[in-house]
Design brief:
Strand content: 15-25%
Structural class: alpha/beta
Bound molecules: ligand BES, manganese (II) ion, zinc ion
Helix content: 25-40%
Number of domains: 2
CATH topology of the largest domain: Aminopeptidase
Number of helices: 15
């Protein structure tokens, strides 16, 4: 989609539809719509005066005024109560309007940035939200549809601002929104592809292509290199599959290539059958999104590069397929991790923490200023928090606070959970240093306690995105399927450092 910013009166925009908004219980348009309206002798106000449009949140009306504006259609959308308005509502509003426009066959949509005026959002934030909502709301994954459905497509989006003093802020926000939404859509694409199309080798190829186009440094470790590095827990998970593992290193230099970087780490299980501790067949198909953490890291790194953030940032992905082949890891097996700690395998289905153990060990080479891993790690986290918040566990309060604030701002809620000594004890083995499963109680927390054992003295946070990386219901700017969760949170975190 082509995104542009235009300064002027939206009622004079030559588009297939324009979008204006109204807070609940407001009868006179204010802000940008108000100014635009006055310039057109109250054309808009007379439409609202009809009375049906109340401005409740996400209420939508399509009007065909025939005069007073240049576009044939006016999409009026409700913002809800003014004091209940948030940045997330701005994103949702834009998404609802864009989807409605697309359904109507609109190719070129012009809109104001919702909430920039009376909504009290900063201009840049409002613009970013409008662009994100539009791009994320109209995302579709159609690669495997061969029947040519005559689907409508939104081709152009013009963000219109009346006040020329706000131009540079609006442009800055719109560009950030576009780059970040592109990162989210890349992550969604990667995770929506089925397991047969996205084995570790293909995931690595996609990361390398992205690095090539954005100028990131990229190194892919193949089977040989993984062996030479001593990444034995990654190898242990991969050995049951005919698909070889990959370890991906992406690097953005930032302002100072010698600075301690922020390291992002993704679980990249391209399909999780459970291995010998085989999962139930029902619903197993959705384990194709078990590389959602790595998809988020790759999508975020793309945005980091394109925004040319000042922070040196490293992305690591540990990719393997978890299969019950004849060479597969077995319950009771003991594996020596890259760090040297030994692990008794209690369940081959607790494979994510195994591949992350070596990735966390490798991360220490960069002496991270902070390391954040993202993983669809435990069903227990889904039980605890459902689908509207990711689990956040950390060894550092400042880092955890910064991440939960980024979560609040982006609507990608990260809810902190504790790692207590009881959880650490639950991961001790009688025969090795650790075991990879602590049983049912506190499953998300014992998993985090396991990861923590591989963190060598740097600020670290773990995001369990098992419940948030896939959407079965869909929301205004999160269509059904892979959500790309984590990309926007990470970018907000990095941009606010
Ligand atoms: N990939 C799963 C976790 C998962 C479950 C992600 C549901 C998304 C939705 C992970 O590898 C797993 O199987 N975890 C086990 C751990 C247990 C064996 C200790 C689990 O949660 O049951
Ligand atoms: Mn598993
Ligand atoms: Zn898994």
């Amino acid at each position: 989609m082509d995104i542009t910013v235009s300064i002027g009166n939206i009622l004079e925009q030559d588009a297939d539809a324009i979008v204006l908004n109204l807070f609940e219980d407001v009868t006179e348009p204010a802000g940008a719509p108000g100014a635009a309206d006055k310039a057109r002798n109250g054309a808009l106000q007379s439409l609202i005066a009809g009375g049906d449009f109340k401005g409740t949140f996400k209420q939508i009306s399509v009007l065909y005024p025939q005069s007073g504006l240049r576009s044939p259609r006016l999409i009026l959308i409700g913002l809800g109560k003014q004091d209940a308005f948030t940045l997330d509502r701005a994103r949702q509003t834009a998404a609802v309007a864009a989807r409605q426009a697309r359904t109507l066959g609109v190719k070129h949509l012009a809109s104001i940035a919702h909430g920039g005026g009376a909504g009290a959002l900063e201009s840049a934030d409002a613009a970013q939200a409008a662009v994100e909502g539009t791009l994320l709301g109209t995302y579709r994954f159609t690669e495997y549809k061969t029947e040519t459905e005559t689907e409508n497509n939104l081709e152009r989006f013009t963000l219109v601002e009346f006040d020329s003093a706000k131009q540079s802020e609006i442009e800055r926000g719109a560009l950030a929104g576009q780059i970040i939404a592109d990162g989210v859509c890349l992550a969604r694409d990667l995770a929506n592809h089925p397991g047969n199309a996205m084995p570790p080798s293909v995931l690595a190829d996609r990361a390398a292509e992205m690095a090539q186009t954005t100028g990131l440094r990229c190194e892919i470790f193949d089977q040989d290199r993984i062996d030479r590095e001593g990444m034995r827990t990654l190898q242990a998970v991969a050995q049951g599959s005919a698909q070889p593992p990959r370890f991906i290193v992406l690097e953005h230099e930032g302002e100072d290539p010698n600075a301690d970087p922020v390291v992002l780490i993704g679980k990249g299980i391209t399909f999780d059958t459970g291995g010998i501790s085989l999962k139930q067949g029902t619903g197993m198909w959705d384990m194709k999104f078990d590389m959602g953490g790595s998809a988020a890291v790759i999508g975020a790194m793309q945005a980091v590069a394109r925004l040319n953030l000042p922070t040196r940032t490293v992305g690591l992905v540990a990719a393997a397929e978890n299969m019950p082949g004849s060479k597969a890891l077995k319950p009771g097996d003991i594996v020596r991790s890259m760090l040297g700690k030994t692990i008794e395998i209690r369940s081959t289905d607790a494979e994510g923490r195994l591949v992350l153990a070596d990735a966390l060990c490798y991360a220490a080479r960069f002496s991270p200023a902070a390391a954040i891993d993202l993983a669809t790690l435990t069903g227990a986290c889904v039980t605890a928090l459902g689908n509207d918040a990711s689990g956040l566990m950390s060894n550092n309060d400042d880092l955890a606070d910064a991440i939960s604030q980024a979560g609040d701002r982006t609507g990608e809620i990260a809810w902190r959970l504790p790692i207590l000594d009881g959880h650490r004890n639950a991961m001790k083995s009688d025969v090795a240093d650790l075991k990879n499963s602590g049983g049912r109680p506190g499953g998300a927390l014992t998993a985090a306690a396991f990861l923590e054992a591989f963190v060598q003295d740097f600020p670290w946070a773990h995001l369990d995105i098992a419940g948030t990386a896939w959407s079965s219901a869909g929301q205004p700017y999160i269509p059904k399927g892979a959500t790309g969760i984590g990309v926007r949170l990470l970018l907000d975190f990095l941009r606010n450092r």
